[in-house]
Amino acid sequence: MHSKRIVVKVGTNVMTNMNNRIVGPILKNLVRQIAYLYERDIITILVSSGSAIAGKEVLGGCSAEDKSTRRQIYSSVGQPRMMRHYYSMFHDFGMRCGQVLATKRDFAPGKYRENMINCYEGLLDEGIIPIANEDDAVSLSMSMFTDNDELASLVAELVNADMLLMLTDIDGLYTGHPEAEESKLLHHVRVHDNVEQYVQASEKGEGEGRGGMKSKLKIAKDTASKNIPTYIANGKNENIILDILEGKEVGTKFTI
């Protein structure tokens, strides 16, 4: 049993380049940090986006006219590709990983939730890194998460995590646009602080992921209110996970 559990959510914009291609070295760097923590008695649950992008890499295109159907096809084809990446990378560090796909229904009180708990606890007891993602191939309408930020928050609560890290492609929540000279990075936000006014100004623009800063702020506050410290930070920074765990002033930290 590891003494500490953290949930790390990696967004699509972290793992892709300007051409919307999966960047292997970025994934490898994240796995390296997770392996480092594992050796120091901290186990990570990884919530990973990227299946739809990976599916597009394989298929190139899709003839389905319906947008939801295209997403299902791309995700169904891309999910094994993502797991092949992760399996190989974790294997290089002498570690094992397992896939956990879910829909929103699986977190509702009752047998589905109990089954999820059993799955995660079983993997963690065996020292296996769970890699979670929305089951995009079957999740539609009411069974869909808002985005993987919501999934990460639900997983953090489910496994009684000590911390949630939401990794994106900006350094955190700013008081304005991240590239504006007068903008300041907010390093610490409490759940009752009125910072919603900064959200629209801090958005960089639409990427391939579903979740923007507005969603991240809501999820971060909701998770922190459950006494799970939550960070929004830049996943492309080389040692971002380790820097946060070492208490360095990086990203935006949310607490009660």
Automatic annotation (TrEMBL):
EC number(s) recorded for this UniProt protein: 2.7.2.11
Aspartate/glutamate/uridylate kinase domain location: 4-234
UniProt keyword list: Amino-acid biosynthesis, ATP-binding, Cytoplasm, Kinase, Nucleotide-binding, Proline biosynthesis, Transferase
An example Gene Ontology molecular-function term: glutamate 5-kinase activity
Record's catalysed reaction(s): L-glutamate + ATP = L-glutamyl 5-phosphate + ADP
Record-listed ATP binding positions: 9, 168-169
Pathway of action: Amino-acid biosynthesis; L-proline biosynthesis; L-glutamate 5-semialdehyde from L-glutamate: step 1/2
GO cellular component entries: cytosol
Gene Ontology BP annotations: L-proline biosynthetic process
Coiled-coil annotated spans: none
Places the protein is found: Cytoplasm
InterPro entries: AceGlu_kinase-like_sf (IPR036393), Asp/Glu/Uridylate_kinase (IPR001048), G5K_ProB (IPR041739), Glu/AcGlu_kinase (IPR001057), Glu_5kinase (IPR011529), Glu_5kinase/COase_Synthase (IPR005715)
Binding-site list for substrate: 49, 136, 148
PANTHER family to which the protein is assigned, alphabetical: GLUTAMATE 5-KINASE, ISOPENTENYL PHOSPHATE KINASE
Described purpose of this protein according to its UniProt entry: Catalyzes the transfer of a phosphate group to glutamate to form L-glutamate 5-phosphate.
UniProt similarity note: Belongs to the glutamate 5-kinase family.
Protein name (record): Glutamate 5-kinase
Source species of the chain: Psychroflexus salarius
